[in-house]
């Protein structure tokens, strides 16, 4: 048991330098940019998680790429362009407006507009003025009332 615990401690200890090696060569400004970029880039495997949050091996590789390119002096836009070239626009949390992303940007507004038009159409249909009633035939009404007042025996005479 003691040997297993010692071996586990040795493995953890040996993994620590590699975890911090990615950012060891960065100064404070680069380190701040590193964290900002990691928050802006999406892990391609873990959908809707940034590479900073993800524990996937690919996210670790992406963090390494970002750190290396920052150490080489590349700008944020150059790093993003490199990653988009390799992994597509999916890697960006905030993709730019283009022909391939117009549905993503305009879709919610179009759906909102269609929903409002539908609600207005339903509300207008619900509150329409009632259709006018046909004019009252007063002569016929008078005859029917008179026949009911006369009694049941007299109505049989009218029908024959």
TrEMBL record:
<keyword id="KW-0479">Metal-binding</keyword>
<keyword id="KW-0201">Cytochrome c-type biogenesis</keyword>
<keyword id="KW-0472">Membrane</keyword>
<keyword id="KW-0812">Transmembrane</keyword>
<dbReference type="InterPro" id="IPR051263">
    <property type="entry name" value="C-type_cytochrome_biogenesis"/>
</dbReference>
<dbReference type="InterPro" id="IPR005616">
    <property type="entry name" value="CcmH/CycL/Ccl2/NrfF_N"/>
</dbReference>
<keyword id="KW-0349">Heme</keyword>
<dbReference type="GO" id="GO:0046872">
    <property type="term" value="F:metal ion binding"/>
</dbReference>
<dbReference type="Pfam" id="PF03918">
    <property type="entry name" value="CcmH"/>
</dbReference>
<dbReference type="GO" id="GO:0005886">
    <property type="term" value="C:plasma membrane"/>
</dbReference>
<comment type="function">
    <text>Possible subunit of a heme lyase.</text>
</comment>
<dbReference type="InterPro" id="IPR038297">
    <property type="entry name" value="CcmH/CycL/NrfF/Ccl2_sf"/>
</dbReference>
<feature type="transmembrane region" description="Helical">
    <location>
        <begin position="102"/>
        <end position="123"/>
    </location>
</feature>
<feature type="domain" description="CcmH/CycL/Ccl2/NrfF N-terminal">
    <location>
        <begin position="8"/>
        <end position="143"/>
    </location>
</feature>
<feature type="signal peptide">
    <location>
        <begin position="1"/>
        <end position="21"/>
    </location>
</feature>
<comment type="similarity">
    <text>Belongs to the CcmH/CycL/Ccl2/NrfF family.</text>
</comment>
<dbReference type="GO" id="GO:0017004">
    <property type="term" value="P:cytochrome complex assembly"/>
</dbReference>
<keyword id="KW-0732">Signal</keyword>
<keyword id="KW-1133">Transmembrane helix</keyword>
<protein>
    <recommendedName>
        <fullName>Cytochrome c-type biogenesis protein</fullName>
    </recommendedName>
</protein>
<keyword id="KW-0408">Iron</keyword>
């Amino acid at each position: 048991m003691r040997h297993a615990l010692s071996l586990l401690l040795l493995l953890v200890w040996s993994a620590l330098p590699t975890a911090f090696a990615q950012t060891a060569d960065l100064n404070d400004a680069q380190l701040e940019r590193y964290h900002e970029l990691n928050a802006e880039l999406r892990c391609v495997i873990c959908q809707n998680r940034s590479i900073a949050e993800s524990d996937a091996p690919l996210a670790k590789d992406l963090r390494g790429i970002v750190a290396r390119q920052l150490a080489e002096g590349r700008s944020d836009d150059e790093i993003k362009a490199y990653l988009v070239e390799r992994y597509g626009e999916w890697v960006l949390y905030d993709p730019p407006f283009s022909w391939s992303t117009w549905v993503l940007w305009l879709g919610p507004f179009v759906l909102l507009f269609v929903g409002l038009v539908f609600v207005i159409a339903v509300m207008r249909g619900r509150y329409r003025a009632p259709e006018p009633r046909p004019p009252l035939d007063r002569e016929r009404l008078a005859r029917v009332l008179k026949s009911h007042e006369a009694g049941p025996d007299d109505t049989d005479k009218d029908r024959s």
